[in-house]
């Protein structure tokens, strides 16, 4: 019977040794592999999220390109005074104002260049105008100066009524004499 117990004890010792070897194998081989597998699974998930972001960006790429193209369109130079030099830009302004006065049946008596000034980082060139005409014509002219292209600004104006006829029955339309400083923004990009 002792032999049977010795054999059973040996078997039990062998099973214990096998369990110890398996536990050591788990700790040394399988556990690090398991941890590495979990780490790789996290990296794969992060990669999938990144891929999804790139795919969303790629889908919107066409729209972004369209928006960038709209932004980079050539500027509307009609809003600025342009020319090879400041003097040429002011001459163009004078032609524009002479045409507006004629179209609105106002008389441009004189136009003289003003010193260039800077406002909010923009260079402004202008003319001092001396005009005369009917009230409604001067009104229309001033409206067109400030609402058309190039963008023009009236910084100072002096308006005086020109005396009408001596007859009190029919004084005629109100006539005005106007002196005003009109400026436009010089194109900052040069000629």
Task: Give the low-confidence spans.
Answer: none
Helix content: 40-55%
Helix segment tally: 3
Share of β-strand residues:
25-35%
Shape: rod-shaped
The major sheet is characterized as:
4 strands, antiparallel
Task: Determine Rg (CA atoms, Å).
Answer: 44 Å
Coarse structural class: alpha+beta
Order of helices and strands: HHEEHEE
Structure description:
This protein has a 4-stranded antiparallel beta sheet. Helix content is 53%, strand content 25%. The protein is of the alpha+beta class and 191 residues long. The radius of gyration is 44 Å and the shape is rod-shaped. Helix 2 packs antiparallel against helix 3 (135-147). It contains 3 helices and 4 strands; from the N terminus they run H-H-E-E-H-E-E. It has helices at 2-71, 86-103, 135-147; strands spanning 107-119, 122-134, 152-162, 175-185. The mean pLDDT is 86.
Brief synopsis:
The chain is 53% helix and 25% strand. It is α+β, with helices and mostly antiparallel strands. The protein has a 4-stranded antiparallel sheet.
């Amino acid at each position: 019977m002792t032999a049977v117990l010795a054999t059973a004890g040996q078997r039990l010792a062998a099973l214990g040794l096998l369990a110890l070897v398996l536990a050591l194998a788990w700790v040394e081989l399988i556990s690090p592999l398991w941890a590495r597998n979990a780490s790789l699974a996290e990296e794969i998930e992060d990669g999938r999220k990144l891929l999804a972001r790139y795919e969303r960006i790629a889908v919107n790429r066409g729209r972004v390109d369209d928006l960038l193209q709209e932004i980079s369109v050539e500027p509307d130079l009609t809003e600025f005074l342009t020319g090879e030099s400041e003097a040429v830009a002011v001459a163009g302004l004078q032609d524009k104002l002479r045409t507006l006065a004629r179209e609105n049946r106002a008389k441009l008596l004189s136009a003289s260049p003003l010193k260039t000034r800077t406002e909010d980082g923009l260079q402004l060139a202008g003319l001092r105008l001396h005009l005369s005409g009917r009230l409604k014509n001067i009104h229309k002219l001033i409206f067109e100066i400030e609402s058309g292209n190039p963008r023009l600004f009236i910084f100072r104006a002096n308006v005086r009524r020109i005396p009408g006829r001596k007859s009190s029955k029919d004084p005629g339309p109100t006539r005005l004499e106007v002196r005003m400083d009109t400026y436009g923004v010089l194109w900052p990009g040069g000629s």
